Amino acid sequence: xxxxxxxxxxxxxxxxxxxxxxxxGSGGGSGGGSGGGGGLVEPVAQDSSGDPNNYYPSLTEGNTxxxxxxxxxxxxxxxxxxxxxxITGTRAVQGVMTSIWHESNPLNYGTATDDYISKGRTxxxxxxxxxxxxxxxxxxxxxxxxxxxLQVGTFEQxxxxxxxxxxxxxxxxxxxxxxxxxxxSVISFQTLTVSVGTFDNTAQIETDSTITFHFSFDGSxxxxxxxxxxWYAPRAGLIKRVDVYTDYDGTIxxxxxxxxxxxxxxxxxxxxxxxxxxxxxxNEPGYAPLGFxxxxxLYIACRDxxxxxxxxxxxxxxxxxxxxxxxxxxxxxGTGCLSYTPSFAFDGSxxxxxxxxxxxxxxxxxxPDGTALVSSFAISTGIPNQIxxxxxxxxxxxxTYLVIWQKYTGGQYDIYGAQVxxxxxxxxxFVVFNATGEQVFPSIAFxxxxxLxxxxxxRNGSGPSDSSDIYGTRITPAAVVLDPTGxxxxxxxxSQGDPRVIFxxxxxFVVWSDQRLSGxxxxxxxxxxxxxxxxVLLDGPSDTGGIAINTASYNNTYFDVAFDGQxxFVVWGSxxxxxxxxxxxxxxxxxxxxxxxxxxxxSDGIPLSGLPxxxxxxxxxxxxxxxxxxxxxxxxxxxxxxxxIYP
Length: 647
Known about the structure:
Elements: H1 6-18, E1 64-73, E2 77-93, E3 96-103, E4 113-120, E5 123-129, E6 143-147, E7 155-164, E8 177-194, E9 197-214, E10 221-233, E11 237-246, E12 252-264, E13 267-278, E14 290-292, E15 297-303, E16 310-316, E17 322-330, E18 343-346, E19 351-357, E20 360-366, E21 372-378, E22 389-396, E23 401-409, E24 412-420, E25 426-433, E26 438-446, E27 451-458, E28 468-475, E29 487-490, E30 496-503, E31 508-514, E32 525-531, E33 547-550, E34 557-563, E35 567-573, E36 585-591, E37 596-598, E38 606-607, E39 618-625, E40 630-636, E41 639-646
Antiparallel strand pairs: 1-2, 1-12, 2-3, 3-4, 4-5, 5-6, 7-8, 8-9, 9-10, 10-11, 11-12, 12-13, 13-41, 14-15, 15-16, 16-17, 18-19, 19-20, 20-21, 22-23, 23-24, 24-25, 26-27, 27-28, 28-29, 30-31, 31-32, 32-33, 34-35, 35-36, 36-37, 36-38, 39-40, 40-41
C-alpha cells in the first residue's frame, strides 16, 4: 500500500479546521463549527449587530493583524516564524459579498492564502478560498463557523462522513474517503496580557477536531487529531492561538502565535508597519540614534559602503515613510563605522549632530530637512589623530547643548564635556568625571533642571571586566558637576556595561548589560534602575539591586530604551543568527514604577523583528517615542530596517 506523507494530512487539516472559528482570518489550525453538515447558510449582508463587543471586528479593507509564532515538534525541533493577516478587499461568492482575508504564512507553511468570509447578525460564515487545487473545501461550504452571541458553555459541532479525498492512494482505482468531526466550545471570558497590552473579557474558545481516513483497499484507518485554543479580544479580534496537532504516528506539533501589532477600524496597537529605512549603507553601522523635530523623525548613522562614506541622515514621516536621505559629514573611514558613532539633539529649530573623527569630536548644525547651517567644527580639544576622543552623546537644556564623550588622556579614558550654543559656538570644555582605570560609553538625559550622565566605569584596568560597573553624575546647565565622586548605579558582581539613560518626566531610568548571573560576556542580561532627580538610586542598593528585564540564556546586546508616556520600552538584539534562535530584535515593557509589565524576564522577550535572513544579524536597535508612536530602527546586514510601534 502506498503510504502518504503526514504533511498532506496536515494541510488538509489546516484547510478544514480553518472553517472553524476563524473570523480573523487566522488561517489554518482552527477546528470545529456548525452548519456544514446540518443545513444551508442563509445569505445575509455584512452585519455586526450580533457581535456588540466586536470580538470579530468589522470586515473593513485594510484591517491588519501581525503575529510572531513558534512551531515546536517532537520530531523536527523548534522553528520561529511571522504571519500577517490583511483584509484586502471584497469578492462576490454565490451572490454574497464576502471579505478577502489574505494570510501571509498560515501555520508557517510558507504559502499565502486568500479566504472568503462574511459577518452577519447571527454569526460568521466561511465561503471558500483561492486555492484552485483544494478539492475538500467545496464539499463543506458555505458554512456558518460561529453563532452570535458568544456565551460560555455553548458549542457547535460538525460531523461529515464519506468525504471524497480526491485521490486514489492505495492503488485500487477508488478514491479514498475521510470523515471530519469537530466541536468548538466557548470556555471562558478572562483577562489576558500579550505584548500589545492587557485585554479584559477575552473570549477563550477551544476546538477539538478529528480526521479519520479510510482506505478503500483494505478498510484500514488513520486518525489525526487537532486541538486549538484561541483568544479573541473585544475590538481587536484574534490575539493569541495555541494549536496542538497529533499525527497518526505519534508526531506532535505545537504552533503558538501571539499578536505583536494590529490596525483594526482605525485603532492601532503594537507593530503596525515594517519597512526599509535605508538599504545598502553599512557593513557595521555602529550605534545610530533617532530624533524628532515635532513633524518628522530623523535617523542618523555612519555609512561605510559606496562612494560617499561618513555620517548621513534619513528623515521619516510619523507614518514611517522615508522622505529623504542626505550626507552630513563625508570623510574616509579607516576601520569601518564603529569608531565614528554619532549622536544628536534638537533645540526646537535645528539639530546639533556630534560624531568622532580623526581622534576628535566634531559637530554640524543642520535643519530638519538636512540642510547644513554650520559645517563641521571641532567640539573637543586635542591634536587630530593623536588624542582619542570617542563616543559622543548630546542633550539640550532649552538654551545650550551639552556634548559629552570619552577622552583618552594620561593612559586612560575619562568622561569630558563641552557646551555648544545653538549657532555652533563651543565653550567650556570640562572634566565630567575622572578616576583610576577607565570611564567609557557615556549616555545623557535632561530632566528640565539638570542633566544625568551615566557611563561604564572600570576602576581596575580597562573593561569590560569583572570590575566594570555603572556610575553616573548630575550636571547643571552651567556645567557644574553635582556628584564629583559619582553615583553608584550598579556595582553588582561581574561585569556591567553599555548604559542608556532616559527621563520619564519624574525619574531617570538607566538600563545596562549585566553579567551578575551568567558570569560571561557570551551571555549578557539586561537590568535597569531608576534614579531620582536628586540623584538617589530608587531600585535597591547598587551592589544587589536593579530590575531584571531579561535574563534569558542568550547574549543580549546593543540595546536602547524609550518612554511612551506610561511604560518604558526596552529593546535589544540577540546576537544570534536565524539557524540558532532566538534571533532578531526583542523587547520588554517596564512600568514607570519599575515593575516588569511584559513578558517575563525569563522569556526571550517580545519578538519584534522576526527572524533575520540566513547569515544576517539583526543588531543595534534604536527606539524613540514622538508622542503618538515609536520608531524602532535596527541594522540587518548592510540594510537599515524600521518598525512603527503604537503603545
